[in-house]
Specification:
The chain is α/β, with parallel strands linked by helices. Helices cover 34% and strands 22% of the residues. The chain has 14 helices and 17 strands. The strands form 3 sheets. Strands 1, 2, 3, 4, 5, 6, 7, 15, 16 and 17 form a 10-stranded mixed β-sheet that branches. Strands 8, 10, 11, 13 and 14 form a 5-stranded antiparallel β-sheet that branches. The longest helix has 20 residues, at 394-413. It has helices spanning 4-7, 11-22, 39-54, 99-114, 141-146, 152-156, 166-176, 202-206, 244-258, 298-306, 308-314, 337-348, 364-367, 394-413, and strands spanning 58-61, 67-71, 81-85, 123-127, 181-182, 191-197, 210-216, 218-227, 231-232, 267-269, 273-276, 282-283, 286-295, 320-329, 332-333, 353-358, 373-378. The structure holds zinc ion. Residues 86, 97-98, 131, 196 line the site of zinc ion (ZN).
């Protein structure tokens, strides 16, 4: 019965839903600013709840505000097949990162419903809370808590960069979808499939429509604190200064050398750099900055990441550098049945496809700890993402949703 569900995928409807979602946090430059658990992120869940209710689907929410829309199967006790991603964006994000995986899952649910297909297992759309980090600087929050990789109590102690407790934001989000039934954290699932824009240029470069992800590269993230001493910019000699900015720059240069890779497989980024007190006439006494380091090979992640603290100390100069590791996500191999199924389905639907690595981290890498997982990539324009100009074509988005719909039907009928 291949083709029944995918034939009901409606390209115009899927595009319209993207544009409806893009209004929630729309920026003047055409992007989206919908930070995790903010008012627009809550509205995104409420909109999904409303759409789902019209189709007769039920909704659930868990203690970290992960949100689920369920289409029942014939066996009510069977573990569900899940598909989804995230509704939050980066501070100056685009219209497709995350929300595509959510809307492709919703489109698949509707297409399966429209095709009148009955599946044995329930199929559920999942919205994982705070994938991007938002005001809490903690990404893949909902999915990592769901699988137990992070403790709920630890996350509930977090405060946002505005000092507001996360518990208040979670409560507000839950109120926005008060009709959704409470669910405990973490329940058995039989499989998870996440659709996502590629966020890189590979598919577009070779003219393929569907990316079958085989591995999500690993990521280590550190925060470096450089402590010096505030001083008067006009009176303190260079030799007496403990200038945290100067030390942080020296450390940053050393880190660039440490992570230099002529093959360009390593990804190394200092994306956050905060100078305090940040005043023109004051020698800065304090700097904090982030290090984001990614690689598909666990051994390289371990070797180069483990040396970060030594590199920082060796170049701290007159200041004191300390390093805290915030994230260590191992590379995740998505080998096996689901990537094979995605590949075969794309082939049967006549869509060009290729196997590929995911350079970005995704909720799927945590869900892979508890269930078989697959990822479907579609091209995004020039590979640009985490950017307000992020773009994708209606046809490519629909193609990914067609593959997803077929894959979900197949997985939901498996025993
Ligand atoms: Zn994303």
């Amino acid at each position: 019965m291949i083709g029944l569900a995918s034939a009901k995928v409606d390209e115009a409807r899927l595009w319209r839903r993207h544009m409806d979602m893009a209004k929630l946090g729309a920026t003047p430059k055409g992007g989206v600013r919908r930070l995790a658990l903010d008012a627009n992120d809550a509205k995104a869940r409420a909109l999904l709840l409303d759409w789902g209710r019209r189709r007769g689907f039920s909704a659930f929410i868990d203690p970290i505000a992960n949100f689920f829309i369920r289409r029942d199967g014939t066996d009510r006790h069977a573990d569900p097949v899940l598909s989804g991603s995230h509704t939050d964006t980066q501070p100056s994000g685009g219209r497709f990162d995350g929300i595509y995986g959510v809307l492709a899952a919703f489109e698949a649910l509707e297409a399966i419903e429209d095709a009148g297909i009955r599946t044995r297992r329930p199929i559920e759309l999942a919205v994982w809370t705070c994938e991007e980090g938002g005001a809490y600087l903690t990404g893949t929050m909902g999915s990592s808590v769901f699988v137990g990789a992070r403790k709920l109590d630890d996350v509930l102690r977090l405060k946002g960069t505005d000092d507001a407790p996360i518990t208040a934001a979670i409560a507000a989000t839950r109120r926005a979808v008060s009709e959704a039934a409470d669910r405990p954290l973490g329940f058995p699932i039989s499989a998870f499939v996440e659709a996502h824009i590629e966020q890189g240029p590979e598919l577009e470069a070779v003219g393929k429509t569907i990316g079958v992800v085989t591995v999500i590269q690993g990521c280590r993230r550190f925060f470096v604190e450089v402590d010096g001493e505030d001083g008067h910019a006009g009176t303190v000699k260079r030799s007496r200064r403990r200038d945290a900015f100067v030390s942080a720059c020296d450390i940053a240069h050393a880190l660039r050398r440490h992570f230099h890779d002529p093959d360009e497989i390593i990804r190394f980024t200092i994306g956050r750099f905060v100078v305090t007190p940040n005043a023109p006439a004051v020698i800065p006494g304090h700097v904090t900055f982030s290090i984001d380091f990614r690689h598909p090979d666990d051994g390289v992640l371990r070797r180069l990441g483990d040396a970060v603290a030594d590199v920082c100390r060796a170049h701290q100069g007159a200041c004191t550098a300390s390093v805290r590791e915030a994230v260590w996500a191992k590379p995740v191999e998505l080998c096996g049945a689901i990537p094979d199924l995605i590949e075969a389905t794309a082939g049967r639907l006549g869509l060009s496809h290729m196997r590929m690595l995911s350079g970005a981290g995704h909720d799927a890498m945590y869900i892979a700890q508890v269930a078989p997982v697959g990822m479907i990539f579609v091209p995004c324009e020039k590979g640009i993402s985490h950017n307000e100009v992020e773009n994708a074509t209606p046809a490519d988005l629909a193609a990914g949703a067609r593959v997803l719909a077929e894959v979900l039907v197949e997985l939901a009928d498996r025993t």
